[in-house]
Amino acid sequence: MNKLSKLLAVAAVTVMVAAPAIGAGYYRSPEPYDWSFEGPFGEYDRQAVQRGFQVYQQVCSACHGLKHLAFRHLGQEGGPFETVMVDGVEQSYANPNDNPVIAAIAAEYLISDIDDIGETIERPGRPSDMFPYPFANEAQARAANGGAYPPDLSIIVRARHYGADYIRSLLMGYDEEPPADLDIRAGSYYNPYMPGMVIAMAPQLWDGMVEYADGTEATTEQMATDVTHFLAWASNPHMEARKRMGLMVMIYLFGLAVLLYASYRKVWSRVKH
Ligand code: HEC
């Protein structure tokens, strides 16, 4: 056997061995959804972000943290509680720490801190606190979830291929029969959108499990869409300001181009050519 045929034989064996492994890792592309925040002028839907936050609070926060988010961020410019109803009047606050809705949300959480004499205490949250992590540490999180680690969700929409479409499809993608050749162990679930098609998170959403403050009907699809909208905002809270700035820059550059062309015409108008 010469060198080339040896190489070809090795390549053929590699493909034969590796192909089933690659096949097993196959997963379904997420269903595309028409998000309001896509495109150069896209914006978040405040109502959807508020509803999604409610789903996060009532369902996901039992296992998933939001370590990059402070309560006050909910009330900053572009946040879901930037304007709130106080005694029937719409209000906005330059400093989110003064926002009573944010203060009420923060006060629902217990935050560990130290007091004046250095003792560890638990106190109600304040707008300036970060969202607390639901477990004491990673080992406890894994122990409570059969060895799997629930990832932090504050930048998950940016951290996953297909972003928001993937998260939404994943949350809705449980109710199918798994293919016969897929090995699903106890504590794992079939989900065709998860790379590898097996996930250690049980289905989380059922029709009607949340009672939305704004009266929207809480179907599984509605909750999956809303919580993903909230997580998209959390992953990219300054998106709207950035898009506005981008638009201003384009307008400015266009004006500058017109001006430069006019001055070019003027400067060269006296030259014969
Ligand atoms: C009972 C605990 C629990 C709850 C409640 C929970 N999850 Fe999970 N979640 C997990 C675990 C465990 C994993 C890790 C799964 C794995 O690695 O297979 C996970 C993984 C994820 C992932 C990552 C998938 C990936 O691509 O790696 C996302 C996104 C997610 N959860 C979103 C949510 C959302 C949104 C909610 C609320 C609607 C929620 N989870 C509620 C336990 C939970």
Summarize the structure.
The chain has helices spanning about 5-25, 45-60, 100-105, 140-145, 155-160, 165-170, 220-235, 240-270, and strands spanning about 85, 90, 110-115, 120-125, 190, 200. The chain is mainly alpha-helical and about 270 residues long.
Secondary structure topology:
Elements: H1 3-24, H2 46-58, E1 83-86, E2 89-92, H3 100-107, E3 110-114, E4 120-124, H4 138-144, H5 156-159, H6 163-172, E5 189-190, E6 198-199, H7 220-235, H8 239-268
Antiparallel strand pairs: 1-2, 3-4, 5-6
Helix pairs in contact: 2-7, 6-7
Bound molecules: heme C.
The site of heme C has 21 residues, from helix 6.
Account of the 3D structure:
- There is one protein chain.
- This protein has two domains: 1-66 and 147-236, Cytochrome c-like domain (Cytochrome Bc1 Complex, Chain D, domain 2, Orthogonal Bundle), CATH 1.10.760.10; 70-130, no CATH class.
- A hairpin with a 2-residue loop joins strand 1 and strand 2.
- It is extended and about 85 Å long.
- The protein has a two-stranded antiparallel sheet with strand order 1-2. The chain has a two-stranded antiparallel ribbon with strand order 3-4.
- It has helices at 3-24, 46-58, 100-107, 138-144, 156-159, 163-172, 220-235, 239-268, and strands spanning 83-86, 89-92, 110-114, 120-124, 189-190, 198-199.
- It is mainly α.
- Residues 20-24 have low confidence and may be disordered.
- It has eight helices and six strands.
- The longest helix has 30 residues, at 239-268.
- Bound molecules: heme C.
- Heme C binds next to helix 6.
